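Sanity check

After download, print the first record. It should look like this:
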Amino acid sequence: MSEQPAGPQTVLLRRGEVHSPADPFATAMVVERGQVAWVGSEGAADAFADGVDEVVDLDGALVTPAFTDAHVHTTATGLALTGLDLSAAPTLEAALALVREFAAARPADRVLLGHGWDAARWPGGRPPTRAELDAATGGRPLYLSRADVHSAVVSTALLDLVPAAVSRVDAPLTADDHHAVREAALGALAPAQRAEAQRTALAQAASLGIGSVHECGGPQISSEDDFTALLKLAGELPGPRVVGYWAERDVDKARELGAAGAAGDLFVDGALGSHTACLHQPYADAPHTGTAYLDADAVAEHVVACTEAGLQAGFHAIGDAAVAAVAEGVRAAAEKVGLARVRAARHRVEHAEMLTPDTVAAFAELGLIASVQPAFDGVWGGEDGMYARRLGAGRARTLNPYAALLRAGVPLAFGSDSPVTPLDPWGTVRAAAFHRTPEHRVSVRAAFTAHTRGGWRAIGRDDAGVLVPGAPADYAVWHTGDLVVQAPDDRVARWSTDPRSGTPGLPDLTPGTGLPVCLRTVVGGRTVFVRPGE
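Expected structure tokens:
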């Protein structure tokens, strides 16, 4: 940790609402030496007032566990915040104008980076040509990733930095070609530019009540230097915490880099938006079934190696064929090393969007963590969304079945995959509770748990992500409206304010209502964010 002011050893927070299973009526909390020491009522808080170093008057604010975002690309998130954001560009012409302005404003950058374009939303539906990008940048290296980060358009000057084997086709680059240009673009970053991006991303997370992020790095995603620099930076800052996963089938390399697992975006397939997710049946709008990067045998080999090394394995799998390959591979690994050892390792599957009843049951049997991103449904779900265009409405309605996963006992850990979708924890909880497909909805309480305690469970910690005595003092303070208990089933009351239920309330997340505003974020008892004016 860096040399930061030690801060008060013991803090009493009072006159608020404390979300804790230890006491559904709690209004006060004591934090001591980075841990929750006590949670209880206002009357009992008087007994602590004289023995603490600081008393914080919450003035009715809500205190919750800090969120954990279980899938983040930190440097890319920071670059999206500090770089060119094309997500709001309404047309191709508008996007090119933004590229020209950005290039003019960043004359010293060795490479220009942008993110978020989606030609499917533009009139005409076509991405920019290489000639258009060359003209907009004045011939400088440029990398623009699509919204799903599984394809990109680049300028000629960037192509000149990659091996000749990379395709020169004038179209978005996918698969290995995309990985090569992304590696070249990120490799051209100056260390100062990278550090600026990482600090910006972590500060943004803290401002949203996020106390931990799971960094999903790897040789096809970032670089070893990027990964180790981020872990070093996180160790020097008071927070948020960063847990790193390295997506390479090399257990020794993952351990050498300080990763919690050889996991994260270890690609079994690609993404639906780029037609690279691996399907059992062809796409509705393309005459193929996507791309398979790993088969069940490769999955099994990796799971065995990680289990025997005491590390988590994990895979990026989106299409139904890819998810089935993971399930088959993990089951084969369990037959070799034992089911109990595989379950105890809490291996992870990132995204896991196209599930069937059989793969849901396999996840439960094998103890797999489903690291999922509810905002994907919010952005791409629905009868007219990208999922329906790629798969047809029938298959699209099966995606992201969170209720079925929970009913089967599969642990959920929520994240954003930022910068694919933004860091937005309450928006993520809302997206799960108000899923575009009603039968996949879960309660706000279950969604909130998946975005707080679920992330800790996904790294093997069952004692954190909840405000009870002995837990790490990772919490956020929120300005919000009335607290309610919301359920996803329209056959019963969707919300209740009855305190007799004994269930701690949470903010009303009904679509159209304002989301809670973070006033303060604390990690390990140390304040990492205070909203200006508080």
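If your output differs, re-run the checksum step. Summary of this record's structure: Confidence is low (pLDDT under 50) at residues 1-5, 491-500.
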